[in-house]
Amino acid sequence: LRARGTKVILYLNIGAVENWRKYPNPNAYSKFGAAKYEGWEGEQHAAFWREDYQQMMAQVARGMAVRGNLDGFIFDNPDSAWVFENMSDAQQKNLPGLPQGFLDQGD
Fold first, then answer.
1. Of 13, 75, 91, 96, which residue is most buried, by most CB within 10 angstroms?
2. SS3 of the chain
């Protein structure tokens, strides 16, 4: 693509996990899925606060960047943070591995 003058952009869905996508962790969908993603079958909002999720996504990004000379990045679904911030306290207590007060840090 680049040889033809086409820009190469890395797409990385950082706010959701999908049951059809291949991740370095084969259990990523069940391990990092934290809440139903309304309107998207086979997709869940990701537990982005988990360090092991962040490490996995960094591994994915590094792997993709090494394979190609990239011109930029597009990160999809960062709005997942908004979904979790707008949950009730009772709903937040059911999120896997969420440190207490994590979603209140921006207030």
1. 13
2. CHHHCCCCEEEEECCEEECCCCCCCCCHHHHHEEEECCCCCCEEEECCCCHHHHHHHHHHHHHHHHHCCCCEEEEECCCHHHHHHCCCHHHHHCCCCCCCCHHHCCC
As averages over each run of 10 residues, the pLDDT of the chain (107 residues) reads: 83 90 91 87 90 91 79 80 68 63 55
> Does residue 54 contact residue 48 with C-beta atoms inside 8 Å?
yes
pLDDT value at position 107?
Answer: 46
Q: What are the tokens at 76?
A: 């999809």
Whether 83 and 16 have beta carbons less than 8 Å apart is answered as: no
Phi first, then psi: give them for residue 11, nearest 5 degrees: -100, 125
Question: pTM above 0.90?
Answer: no
Amino acid at 50: R
State the pLDDT at residue 6. 87
